[in-house]
C-alpha cells in the first residue's frame, strides 16, 4: 500500500495569469498543510508535485503529460484560463487523469475527467447582469481581454441584457497583454459614450492600468461603476483602493463574509502567508476543492480517477463562503452567489447574496433572469 497521496499542482506563478493563479496556489497549499497536520486522508499525507506552466498553454499540456506519465500522478489541481484547461483535456481523457478546476468560467462544458469547483454562468454572470440592470441602469458597455472567457461571457451578457430591455452601448476587446495606448483608448470611448455601467472581463496585467486610467479620466464609480467577475481584494490592494472604491464584483466569497469558517480561513491564511496577505474568492475556491477532494478520497479509498470522480458526487464542505456541494449531475459545484461593492478601505460591502447555495447550471437549461432574488435577501 502506498504511504502517501501524490497530486499534481499546475498553477502559474509567472506570466499573465501570475496574480490569480498564485492565489490559487496559496489556497491549495494552505488546505494541504491543514489536512496533513490533522493526520492526512485515511492516515496518509497529501504530497503535491508542483510545476509552474508560466501562463503558457503548451506548457500546461507538457506538464500535464509529465505528471500523468513520468510522475505517476493521476489527479491534478490547476488552470485559470479556459485555453489552458482545454489544452490539457485531451491528455486527461487519453491518460485517465482527473482535473480539479477552481476558476469561474464561461460554462457550456462537461468532461467526466474534470470537477468544476468555480462559478458557472448562472452562479456569477447572471447575478452581475441582474444587479446592474436593477440597481444601476440598462445602457452597458462591455470590455474584455481577447480570449474565450470574455467573448463567451459577453455573448451571454448581451443576450441577458437585451432580453431585459437593456442596450449594449459598445463591445470591445484588448490583447491579454495590452499596452497603455489601447487601454486609454477604451477608457476614452467609455467617457465619450457615458453608459450607465461597464462590465469588464479584462484580466491579468491589464487590470491595474485599466482601473487607474478609468479614475484618472474623471469617471466616478458612484455614477458610472465597472462590474467585474474577477476583481478581488488582493488586486485592489495593488491597484489602490482609491481607484476602485464604488466598483462592483460578483463572486462567491469576499473577505468581508463574517462566518466562523471564514474567520478560520482568514486567520490560517494570515499565519501562513503574512498578516499583509489578503485572501480572495480565488484562494478560497482553491482551498475548498482540496477539502472536497479529501472528502471524496476518504469515501473512495483509492485515487483512481474514475472511482474518485464517482465518489465526489454529493460530497460537501463547510467552506468559508458557506456550504459547497459537488453536483452529481454535472461535476460542477453548488456555490454561494454574492454581489459586493468596494469601499474606501479596499473591502467589499455585501449588497446582495443568495439565501442558499445555487445549483450549477453550466448549460443554462433552466435559468431565469431573476438573478436569484426569489432565493435571496438584501443585507441590511
Short description:
This is Putative amidase expression-regulating protein. The model is unreliable at 372-380 (pLDDT under 50).
Structural class given helices, strands, pairing? alpha/beta
Main β-sheet description: 8 strands, mixed
Q: Which second-level CATH architecture of the largest domain applies? A: 3-Layer(aba) Sandwich
Q: Give the helices and strands as they follow along the chain.
A: EHEHEHEEHEHEHEHEHHEHHHEEEEEE
- Rg value: 20 Å
Compute the average pLDDT.
Answer: 94
Residues in β-strands, percent: 15-25%
CATH superfamily assignment of the largest domain? Response regulator
Topology, number of strands: 16
Description:
- The strands form 3 sheets. An 8-stranded mixed β-sheet has the order 7-6-8-9-10-14-15-16, sandwiched between helices. Strands 2-1-3-4-5 form a 5-stranded parallel β-sheet, with helices on both faces.
- The protein is an alpha/beta fold and about 375 residues long.
- It has 2 domains: about 5-120 and about 260-335, Response regulator (Rossmann fold, 3-Layer(aba) Sandwich); about 120-255 and about 335-375, 3-Layer(aba) Sandwich (Rossmann fold).
- The chain is about 40% helix and about 20% strand.
- Helix 7 (about 205-215) links the parallel strand 8 (about 195-200) and strand 9.
- The longest helix has 20 residues, at about 20-35.
- Helix 7 crosses helix 8 and helix 11 (about 280-300) packs across helix 12.
- It is globular.
- InterPro entries: AmiC_PBP1, Peripla_BP_I.
- This is Putative amidase expression-regulating protein.
Amino acid at each position: 500500500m502506498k504511504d502517501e497521496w501524490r497530486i499534481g499542482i499546475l498553477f502559474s506563478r509567472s506570466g499573465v495569469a501570475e496574480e490569480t493563479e498564485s492565489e490559487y496556489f496559496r489556497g491549495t497549499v494552505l488546505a494541504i498543510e491543514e489536512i496533513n497536520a490533522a493526520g492526512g486522508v485515511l492516515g496518509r499525507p497529501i504530497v503535491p508535485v508542483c510545476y509552474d506552466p508560466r501562463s503558457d498553454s503548451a506548457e500546461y499540456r507538457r506538464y500535464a503529460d509529465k505528471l500523468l506519465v513520468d510522475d505517476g500522478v493521476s489527479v491534478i489541481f490547476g488552470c485559470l484560463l479556459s485555453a489552458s484547461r482545454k489544452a490539457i483535456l485531451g491528455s486527461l481523457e487519453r491518460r485517465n487523469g482527473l482535473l480539479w478546476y477552481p476558476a469561474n468560467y464561461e460554462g457550456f462544458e462537461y468532461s467526466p475527467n474534470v470537477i468544476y469547483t468555480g462559478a458557472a454562468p448562472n452562479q456569477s454572470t447572471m447575478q452581475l447582469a441582474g444587479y446592474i440592470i436593477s440597481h444601476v441602469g440598462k445602457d452597458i458597455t462591455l470590455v474584455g481581454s481577447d480570449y474565450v472567457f470574455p467573448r463567451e461571457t459577453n455573448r451571454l451578457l448581451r443576450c441577458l441584457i437585451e432580453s431585459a430591455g437593456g442596450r449594449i452601448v459598445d463591445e470591445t476587446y484588448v490583447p491579454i497583454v495590452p499596452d497603455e495606448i489601447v487601454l486609454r483608448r477604451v477608457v476614452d470611448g467609455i467617457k465619450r459614450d457615458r453608459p450607465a455601467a461597464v462590465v469588464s472581463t479584462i484580466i491579468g496585467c491589464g487590470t491595474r492600468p485599466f482601473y487607474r486610467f478609468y479614475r484618472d479620466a474623471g469617471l466616478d464609480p458612484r455614477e458610472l461603476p465597472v462590474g467585474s467577475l474577477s476583481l478581488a481584494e488582493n488586486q485592489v490592494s495593488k491597484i489602490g483602493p482609491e481607484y476602485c472604491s464604488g466598483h462592483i464584483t460578483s463572486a462567491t466569497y469576499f473577505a468581508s463574509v463574517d462566518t466562523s469558517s471564514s474567520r478560520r480561513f482568514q486567520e490560517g491564511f494570515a499565519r501562513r502567508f503574512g498578516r499583509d496577505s489578503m485572501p480572495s474568492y480565488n484562494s478560497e475556491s482553491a482551498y475548498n476543492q482540496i477539502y472536497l477532494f479529501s472528502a471524496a478520497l476518504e469515501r473512495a479509498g483509492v485515487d483512481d480517477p474514475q472511482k474518485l470522480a464517482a465518489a465526489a458526487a454529493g460530497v460537501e464542505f463547510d467552506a468559508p463562503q458557506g456550504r459547497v456541494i459537488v453536483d452529481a449531475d454535472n461535476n460542477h459545484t453548488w456555490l454561494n452567489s454574492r454581489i459586493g461593492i468596494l469601499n474606501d478601505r479596499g473591502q467589499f460591502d455585501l449588497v446582495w447574496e443568495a439565501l442558499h447555495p445555487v445549483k450549477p447550471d453550466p448549460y443554462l437549461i433552466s435559468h431565469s433572469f431573476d438573478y436569484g432574488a426569489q432565493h435571496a435577501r438584501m443585507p441590511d
